[in-house]
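Hi P.,

Sorry for the delay on this. The queue was packed all week, but I finally got your sequence through. Input first:
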Amino acid sequence: SAAMCFPAGPHALKSARGKREAAIAARMRMWRFALRETGWLLLALIGAGVLAAIVSTLAVPGATADLHHFVAALGQRCLDFARLEFGFSSITGTSAVAMLARGLAPTLVLLVWGAVIAVIVGAPVGIIFARGPVHRPFAPLIQVVAAMPVFCVGLALIWFAVNVLHWPASARGDAGAALGLVPALLERNAIAVTNAFRILAVPALIVGAAGAASLQLALRRAAAEAGEASYRQGLKLMGLSALEIERVYSAPQIAAGVLASLGEIVLALISAAAIAEWVFDWPGDAVLFVKSVALHDWTVAALVLLLFAAIKLVADFIGALGAHALAEPDGEA
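Then the structure:
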């Protein structure tokens, strides 16, 4: 064809060069943003470590006698944390790291399955009630359900599971079976899957309900902002259809808004995990934190606090990067 026989004209070459330069500039902006966010993450982690060291200092004998002793004990705790020496439980004498490690897997299982439920339930609810004629009459109902205390949801689910389904009310001694749900699914072991599901379903639903409430709120908030964006009217005047505007422009903005709230959603999951673990006697780190604070076992409480703070901060970091990547034009258009 003629396009293949003749070289590109100067205007085409200039346009291609401009696109490449724009793409390089966009990538450089993304790298600068990532480096800046990494710096803030490191500072935030250091701050969380100092806060955990302050809490841990409360376990040092005589540290609370006066300010001088507390500052000296705090300095020693900070040095210990820097050397990754987190101390021992004042109740059991067990290593705080060992206690944290024992409860980490059960808590992560609850958080992961809760996140899955949150996406399955919260995303459709947020999308359906975000905009449109169905939003107005149902908005108050959604607000009431989303504001319902997780503890009340847990009690209702426990009553239903025990009295109607005749499922176990406590996971103590059976949490190991629940952790094997995925291997049981892969092995197609129906008995193991049933047992794991009966133990894990209600605690995961409690965590998922809190995550779904937070997710749908973030989605509806982002969709409302996208619906009021000033560019929509201009795009309509350019001849773009409503579906194309939603797909090409609004959807990335909504996704960016949800990613920006990722830390908030993760925090909701962690808070609900503490309640679910307490109610169901689930041997995880969230309930370990509650019990440690109640027993004034500050060494263990500080380490669990540091873990959850790190999870939340990393979620904020990932969400910020994802939101910026979606909002930043790549220069290829």
